[in-house]
């Protein structure tokens, strides 16, 4: 085994630090993500009403927890670490892309309204430069995906869009 500058003691400390960091990250994710699913279902952002159920005794969103754990198990069983890391990173980049585009849209809307609230609100220096640069950087990162990775992400988006459309339009009738 080859050690870096820190030697075997530094390698051990870095490994322990990485394990503690990953444990904290996973603990936080397991506790918070099902609650986001629960709230989205309760607010009817997603058309899965069953996900908004709360356990009578423990007051936890147990259906959302079951859905989240089931999806995590499915993804972990079907893909390797590399595929899951790429899917996770690309998904987060797509969310950030949406946020950057929303900043541009909200800035345009705010400029049209020009209300007192908009004058007192926080404004990032540089105007449209920061969100446009963010969009360009995100698109650059996403352009580095291989064709199979990009096709997989597009397939997941299409699949989830079909489920959303089906749940929102068909089940509501």
UniProtKB/TrEMBL annotation:
Secretion signal span: none
InterPro entries: AA/rel_permease1, APC_superfamily
Record's keyword annotation contains Lipoprotein: no
Pfam families: AA_permease_2
UniProtKB keywords: Cell membrane, Membrane, Transmembrane, Transmembrane helix
Primary subcellular site in the record, as a coarse category: membrane
TM annotation in the entry: 6-26, 60-78, 84-104, 125-144, 150-171
Subcellular localization(s) per the UniProt record: Cell membrane
Membrane topology: Multi-pass membrane protein
Protein name (database record): Amino acid permease
Source species: Arenibacter arenosicollis
């Amino acid at each position: 085994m080859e050690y870096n500058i820190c030697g075997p003691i530094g390698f051990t400390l870095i490994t322990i630090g990485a394990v503690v960091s990953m444990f904290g990250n996973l603990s936080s994710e397991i506790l918070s993500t099902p609650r986001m699913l629960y709230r989205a279902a309760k607010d009817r952002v997603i058309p899965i009403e069953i996900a908004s159920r709360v356990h009578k005794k423990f007051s936890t969103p147990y259906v959302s927890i079951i859905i989240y754990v089931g999806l995590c198990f499915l993804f972990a069983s079907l893909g390797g670490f590399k595929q899951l890391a790429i899917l996770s990173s690309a998904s987060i980049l797509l969310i950030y892309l949406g946020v950057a585009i929303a900043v541009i849209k909200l800035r345009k809307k705010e400029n049209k309204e020009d209300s007192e609230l908009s004058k007192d609100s926080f404004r990032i220096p540089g105007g449209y430069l920061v969100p446009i640069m963010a969009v360009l950087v995100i698109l650059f990162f996403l352009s580095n995906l291989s064709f199979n990775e990009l096709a997989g992400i597009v397939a997941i988006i299409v699949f989830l869009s079909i489920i959303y459309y089906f749940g929102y339009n068909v089940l509501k009738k």
